[in-house]
Every structure is written in structure tokens, then in C-alpha cells.
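This follows on from our talk about sequence and fold. Go ahead and set the record down below:
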Amino acid sequence: MSSIKRVNVAKRLSDMAVYNGVAYLAGQVPDDATLDITGQTAQVLATIDKLLAEAGTDKSRILMAQIFITNMKEFDGMNKAWDAWVADGNAPPRATVEARLANPDYKVEIVVTAAVA
């Protein structure tokens, strides 16, 4: 049986679990909630890059992305950061929904699952 590797384990959640060749990331949120949607999204994507690197993989191996934004009117701003970040030729399946987030200043939260090399 394969072991489960957990990263940044806290009482309530881990930032990531890696099991059987797959990295499962928790919802990642921005460090600076004062930024606009594009800035917050860029911060979240940078965090995702770091976590994926820790798992031995990268954004070109994302299997699925789930994006939660607080206001669909900001969809284009989120996509501006996403489009600049997503790996050419490797855009993953993705869902984007409007949702109320845990911190009212957060504009975006992103969950990804990726294959580990």
C-alpha cells in the first residue's frame, strides 16, 4: 500500500496530499486580500506552482482545476492571470463557479489535482 504524503499539515487541513502518483491541493487563497482579482489570482497560482514543485510535478500536469470567485463580473480579470499562467497546450479541464469564500476579502480560491511525474 502506498503511503500518503501530507504537506503543511494544520489542525483543520493540509495544503496538499500526494498519493498514488496524484497531488491533491486544498483550496488555495491569496496572501494579500487587498489586491484586485487579477493580483489575487496571480498570487494563488504562484502558491500552486510552489506546492506542485514540492510534489515533484508542475502546472503542465494538472488533471483538473476548480476555481471559486466571489463575483462573476470579475471573471475576465481572473482569466487574465490564468491565461498568462496556464501551460501552453496543457490547459486542464476546469470549472469556475461563483461562491462566497471564508474571508469576505478573498476574491478567488483555486483547487487543483495534478499527476506526479
Remarks:
- The mean pLDDT is 96.
